[in-house]
Amino acid sequence: MRRSLRRGTLLAVAALTASAVQLTSPAVAAPAPAAAPCGPLDVAFVLDDTGSMGGAIANLKTGINAIVGDVVSASGGDYRLGLVTFKDNITVHNTLAPGNAAAVTSYVTNTLAASAGGSEPEASDEALNTVVNNLPAAGRPQNVDFGGLWRSNAMKFVVLVTDARPGGFDNVHAAVDVANAAQRANDALGKGIKISPVYVPTSATYTPVITPIMQNYASTTGGVFTQTTAAGAGTADAIRKLLSDCRQTDVVIRDQVTDTGAEPNPNGTVWNSPDIKVCPTTADCAGIQPVVGATNIIHVRLNNASAASTGTLKVYRTPTGGGTTWNNVTNGDWVSIGQQSLTVPTGGTVAKIPWTSVPGPGHFCLLARWVSATDPMTFAEGSNTALNTKNNNNIAWKNLVTVRGKVFQPVKGWFALGNGTEREVRTDLVLTGEKPVAGTVVIDLGPRLFERWRAGGGQAEGVKQVGETAFQLDPKRAALFGVPLLPGERFTAELTFTPEAPGEYLTNLVQFVEGEDHGGVAYQVITDRE
After folding, report:
1. Which residues in 348-450 belong to E strands, given as ranges?
2. Is 116 left (phi over 0), alpha (psi -120 to 50) or beta?
3. In Å, how far are 32, 55, 83, 120, 468 from 163, measured between CA atoms?
4. Confidence (pLDDT) at 214
5. DSSP structural state of residue 457
6. Per-residue pLDDT for 34 more than 60?
C-alpha cells in the first residue's frame, strides 16, 4: 500500500513490539499508549470465560479502559470492536460496529465473569471461526450472528485469550481440532487479519499441546503470541502490547510502467498493468492470450521496497470491458481464479497462480489483489473497479487483448459495457487510437445495446453507421454518448479490426460514467503481410 503521511509515522508504534513471543509478568509496567495513529482499526476480542480463567478475567477488567482507550487513540477514532466469549458454545456480545467502545468496556467491566464451562477443552477454534468468517448463528451453538464487516482499509486484529486446547463443540480435543485451528489461521491470513493469542497456563499438563497451536495462529497471520503467568497476571498488559504492533509494509502491483506507488495514482489509465501476464508455464514469457480449455499460469509481479510482507495474492477474471461490479470482488462480476499465500521479500517477487480449464470462447480482464494484515488498503473500496485500482496499489487490473491477423483479414475483439452501480447511469464509450489502426474499425452493438443508445438520444462523434446495429469508427477517435444502463446490466459489443497495412497497432476503448473512467480495454492488433 502506498504510504500516506498519516501512516508514515508508525515506526514509533512498531518499536513497542520486540518479538513474535512476549512473556508478561506482574512486574512489567503497562506500555504507553501508541505514539502515533495506526489508521483505521478493527479489533475483535475472543475470550474464554470458563471458571479456570478467573485470574485472567479479573486482570482484564482492571485494564479494559486502557486497552480500548489505546484502540480509540491509535485509530484516531476510526475503529470497530467485536467481543465474543466461549465455553463449549459461543456467545456474541458485540459485533464489529463503529464507535462501540463504551458498550464493550461496559460489558467487560460490569458483566464479564469466569464461570462453569465443565471440563477442558473449549470451543476456541470455533469461536475464531465465528469471528474471522462472520458466521451466522443458524446451525451452531451460538446465540446470535457475528455481524459487521472487516474493512479492507483497516488493520485487523483478533485477540484470543484462553487456557484450553481447542475442542470444537464436542468437548473433545482430537486431531480434527488441531486441523480446524490451523484452518482458522489460514482463513485469517487470506483476509488480512492478525490473530494474536494470549495463553494463560493454568495447567502445565496441556502447555506442550496448546503452545504450538497458538504460536501457529501468530506465525501464520503475522500476529504476536503471548504467555502470561498461571494466575493470569499481566493479561491486560499483554493485550496492550500486541495491539501496538502497527508495523506497515508496502507491496505494490503497478498500474503503469511509470507507477511509483503513489496513492491515488496520478498517472493515466489503470487497466493495463505491466505486472500481470499470462504464460503457458511457470517459465517467464512475454505474455499470451489465455488458451481456452488448457491450464495457463498467471504471473503477477509484487514489488516491495519495504520490509518482508506476508499476505495472500488473489486473482480474478471477468469478460473484457468496463463497468464491472466490485462488491469486494466476492459477489460481483469478478470470478475467482485462485490465490497464493506467500511472503514477499524486500525487492519483490513473482507469484504464479494456475488458471485451470480456461473457459471460452472469449477474452478476459484479470484483477490482482494483495491482502495483508500489515498492508491494508489506503482507501476503502467502493463499487468502481477503476477507482479502487487507482486509489490502492494493492490492486492492479490487466485488460489487454492481443489479436493477430493478415492485411485485409478482419480480426475480432469484444467489449462488455456494464453498470456496476446501484442506480441507472448514462455511459459513454470512447475509442482513442494510441497507435491508430491503418484500416477500419467497426463496432457492432447488437440489437439491445443499439436500442439503448438510441433511447439515450443517439449521440455520437467520429462514427458512420454501416449496418443495422454497426458503426465504423474513426481509428483516431470516436465516441458513442449517453447509453442508459440499469443497475447490474451488462452488454457485449463486437469489434472488428481490418488493417490495410502490416504493423502493430494499439487502440483503447474506454467506458466513462459521468466523466469518470469505469474501465477499458487496450486492443493490440498485430498484422502480418500476406
Report:
1. 349-355, 364-371, 395-398, 400-406, 411-418, 425-435, 439-444
2. left
3. 27, 11, 18, 9, 74
4. 98
5. T
6. no
Amino acid 289: pLDDT:
82
Q: Tell if the pTM clears 0.90, that is, is over it.
A: no
131: number of Cβ within 10 Å: 28
**What is the CB neighbour count within 10 angstroms for residue 347?**
9
Neighbours of 509 (CB within 10 A): 27
Return the sign of the alpha-carbon dihedral for residues 264, 270, 274, 275: positive
DSSP result, 187-245 = HHHHTTEEEEEEE--S-GGGHHHHHHHHHHHHHHHT--EEE--TT-TTHHHHHHHHHT-
User: Rounded CA gap, 212 and 10, in Å?
Assistant: 30
For range 489-517, the mean pLDDT: 92
Task: Give yes or no for residue 182 having a pLDDT over 50.
Answer: yes
Mean pLDDT of 351-362: 85
Backbone φ, ψ for residue 134 (5° rounding): 50, 55
What is the average pLDDT across 30-39?
56
pLDDT tops 60 at residue 10: no
The answer to whether the CB of 267 falls within 8 A of the CB of 258 is yes
Secondary structure of residue 9 in the 3-state scheme: coil
| Phi, psi (rounded to 5 degrees) for 351 | -90, 145
The C-alpha atoms of residue 371 and residue 375 are separated, in whole angstroms, by: 7
At 290 the pLDDT is 84
Cβ atoms of 418 and 323 within 8 Å: the answer is yes
Neighbours of 113 (CB within 10 A): 13
- The grid coordinates of residue 439 equal 484500416
- For the record, the C-alpha cell of 126 comes out as 470455533
Burial of residue 234 (CB within 10 Å: 0-12, 13-18, 19+) is: buried
Torsion sign over Cα 121, 122, 127, 129: positive
Residue 362 pLDDT:
66
User: What is the arithmetic mean of pLDDT over 191-211?
Assistant: 96
Work out the pLDDT band at 17, boundaries 50, 70, 90: very low
| DSSP 8-class letter at 378 | S
In tens, the pLDDT along 128-147 reads 999 999 999 999 999 999 99
**495: β partners:** 413, 443
Closest to 398 (Cα-Cα) out of 369, 371, 378, 372: 369
